[in-house]
Amino acid sequence: MLVGRRAEQAALEQLLARAQGGDSGVLVVRGEAGIGKSALLRHMRETAVAMGFGVHDAAGVEAEAEFAFAGLHQLCAPLLARAVELPEPQQTALGVAFGLREGAAPDRFLVGLAVLSLLAENGPLLCVVDDAQWLDQASAQVLAFVARRVGAERVVMVFALRDPGVTDVEAFSGLPELRLAGLGASDAQTLLATAVRAPLDDVVRDRIVAEARGNPLALLELPRSAPAVQFAGGFELPDVVSVPRRIEDGFRRRANSLPADARMLLVVAAAEPTGDAALLWRAAAELGIAREAAAPAEAAGLLEFDFRVRFRHPLVRSAVYRAATPTDRRRAHGALAAVTDQQVDPDRRAWHRAQAVVGTDEDAAAELERSAGRARARGGLAAAAAFLKRAAELTPRPAVRAERALEAAHAKHEAGASEALELLTVAAAGPLDAVAQARLELLRARIAFHGARGGEGPRMLLDAAKSLAPLDPALSRETYLDALDAAIVTGDRGPGGVRAVADAARAAPAPPEPPRPVDLLLDGLVTTFTQGYAAGVPGLRRALDAFNPHERDDHAVNDGDDRRWLWLAGRTAMSVFDDQMVHALAARHVRLVREAGALATLPAALLVQSVMLVLSGDFSRADEQTAIASATRTVPVLHGQLILAAWRGRSDETTEVHATMVREAAGHGGRTEDFLAQYAMAVLHNGRGDYPAALVAATRAFESDELTHSNLAHSELIEAACRSGRPERATAALDQLSSRALASGTPWGLGLAARSWALVSTGPAAEEYYREAIEQLRNCQVATQLARTHLVYGEWLRREGRRQGARQQLRTAHQMLSDMGAQAFAARAARELRATGEHPRSRSAQPSDALTAQELTIARLVATGATSREVGAQLFLSPRTIEAHLRSIFRKLSITSRRQLRDLRLP
């Protein structure tokens, strides 16, 4: 019976009821150790079984946190027989992740989609993950991803997390939460009465209730381990240790009172995280412990033995393991290593063996190194880093230890862990050869840049590039490009700015023959920043063609190398005003990132694609890209949200996201985040006609090398300056935009330049520029700028007293801007139309207007003939969820079939 948790029980039961009706539910239950999370989940399991649900469990275990996909395997193991029904790519991804087959590192999205499909086909289903703070990183990412995409499945997912957090569980942030507080005094007294059969003196009872602070486990356990004098109303000093610590101390005292063999058996059970009873008994036999040793431990209520070994509470496991002597812990791990099958589970055997070592052991270290390779192959970077770190600790020879510490640091950095610098300190103790020393300095520089987004990062990267030049020319060239990209991103125009870094990069080693795309990109950017834009454009175009799979054999270079630089290549395509190339490179970047399962880099890939979709006027698809990026929760996905909100004219949303970005930029020195926010604010203010505010924001944005490199800031500054009556403030931006447009020769660039010249011109010259701008922009995909050109041309015509011509341009602008959802600019066009004496027509309602952004995206994909499974793979949703969305789409559009959907003209 659960005491005092009626509201919480009702919330969980409501999730189950909704799932029975065809919906899904996700909840994160948070609270301190012993607060009742496990009891609440136990009640939910019992309720779910009574309602006809299937129930699948997993639990994070601290000792298991280094094994990639271990927690996910726990949850999915009962369903794996159904995996043969999944599409082959999903089968492969899941099989490689669980070590059931060989293959390249699995796409995390395919793993997540495979898990989602397995769960969806077995509903109604309750998935319970207890102690999720101890899940391995790979499992936490995939399960949180699945929870965000569970959609219309009859699946309930519940995660229990201990507060205060003991590990980084950011993967679950943003999911619905239920925080458990302590029991009230009345409920606490009721629960205490179930634990203490003898009558209690009121003073003693009140003291126990007060010191337990409403913690249910404390109320049940503290009386069992309290000295008898307390029940007699003694006057000993109060214990000020935290409640969970006191509970753990109680479990430890209870364990220490057991016979020696029973205590040792508990240590082995605590060291073996899988709960495999057969394995435990083999390890016990290895130590000469008879099965009878389990009886005292069971009688003490510490754990129970069945097909699986279960501790009464996770705090029992940690209490037992921490209380054990180092010798006993090593004996337990040694026995477990001896009885773990090296063929079936080599990594867990290697880990146990490593924990049994005193001092150093090259054989154990080498075995861990091999485990790290297998973990990396499965996509478990965090696990690989943990194995390599322990391998370095066990390595006797200093040179080998330094090499392994360096590899561990690289793996930790890739996995996003903070211990990389500590491992670099170990590696720096050496001895390292010249190549390894240069790689160490390179990693130190990358950590410095990513940690501060500026400061010494570009300079340190330059130093590393120089050191690598005679040792590894290819890596040296990549590092020079790293430094150049860092200088562009930081926007520092001082001694460490782009020009200075580009000058230094001229000393890079010669490129190989034939040059790689990355070599062409470096040379093109160096030429651009040292000799001028016009001189650099031909080289930049060659580089972009090399990155474009349509211009070469897609297997001519390594996709992983391409993937790393496509972020810079896409922004460079914007710098030469090549809209088609931006779309092509952004799409390729997203595809390669998804295939590699590189969750951390997906938001950056989607950002370039989202920005280009916004500029193309396809706001609904841009919205969907932002939603997909948000589902990963790997980094804050604010940039895309900010730009989209600004172009839509949503003042409150733009201001809110802008404020968040500025706060985050202040926290880690990210000037570019602030510059990008200023660009978005300039768009918002220009749309609303607040030109002085737009001028302030655009001027700030134009100070950024990143925004001038990608040509985002120029036109906003020019329009704001001219409309504020300060055309002289636009001179530098206009000169640069004009020269770039001429050098690039593209409709996008020439159109923007012509419109900008029109804004600063008068009379027939202005009109000629406006018409040229419209003609050029019609020939590219940047629909937002075409619509805005019709708008400013119409405004100019009205001020010239030419109402009929103004109405024509303003009608076109209003229609285009309204259709794409640029409401502030559309409202500006409507005001101008009214000033001509014409009432703007309301946009004609379209059946598709009733669709959400996600429904519109699904409808578009289905209209191409894609199956529900294919659409689900594209959007990381299960086929069942796609079918549920289709039912809603059909209802809203008053159609009944996919064929009818194909016949509709969707925006």
Automatic annotation (TrEMBL):
The keyword Nucleotide-binding applies. It comes from the Bacteria. The lineage of its organism: Bacteria, Bacillati, Actinomycetota, Actinomycetes, Kitasatosporales. Residues 844-907 form the HTH luxR-type domain. One of its GO terms (molecular function) is ATP binding. This is ATP-binding protein. It comes from Streptomyces ardesiacus. Keywords: ATP-binding, Nucleotide-binding. The keyword Nucleotide-binding applies. Coiled coil: none annotated. Transmembrane segments: none annotated. Gene3D superfamilies: P-loop containing nucleotide triphosphate hydrolases, Tetratricopeptide repeat domain, Winged helix-like DNA-binding domain superfamily/Winged helix DNA-binding domain. CDD domains: LuxR_C_like (cd06170). It holds the Pfam family GerE.
